[in-house]
Amino acid sequence: MQIRSYTDADREGVLSLLRLNTPAYFSESEEDDLIEYLNHHSQHYFVMESEGALLGCGGFNLFDEEELARISWDIIHPGHQGKGLGRLLTQYRIARIREYPHIKTIVVRTSQLVYKFYERLGFDLKEVTKDYWAEGFDLYYMDGPAEKWDVSR
Length: 153
Fold this sequence. Notes:
Residues 1-147 form the N-acetyltransferase domain. Pfam families: Acetyltransf_1. By secondary structure, the protein is an alpha+beta fold. It has a single domain (2-77, 84-148), classed as 3-Layer(aba) Sandwich (Aminopeptidase). The chain is built from 4 helices and 7 strands. The protein has helices at 11-20, 30-40, 85-97, 115-120, and strands at 2-5, 45-50, 53-63, 68-76, 105-110, 124-134, 137-145. Strands 1-2-3-4-5-7-6 form a 7-stranded mixed sheet, sandwiched between helices. Strand 4, helix 3 (85-97) and strand 5 (105-110) form a beta-alpha-beta unit. Helix 1 packs antiparallel against helix 2 (30-40). The longest helix has 13 residues, at 85-97.
């Protein structure tokens, strides 16, 4: 298992992962948003692969003035969900975020479909907005202080 920085060569593989998770976890309308993200905001985006197969991806974005980082676009291949890959990828990104000492808060914006995953990782639910991402896909806004997570283990 390897986690590495996203490159443009990974684009179709990432979009394929999104499509494999649509409509179970994403709305069809979100594909354009992911393309925009990959085109303009992927400087801290990562892919997880094993033996050349893309198994997952996810990133984060820094908001320096607000002293926060936002976990973004987590996608795990449906055949590999529930095996700890999402946890591993999230812990990897938290470790990268902690390299920026000015970041005080880590935010996750997710849906009702997976917010329990982030809750188990220690994120606190702050707000819910119905049909935010698309009809039937609510926003679950979660966060926690960056120092909360000990990723040295």
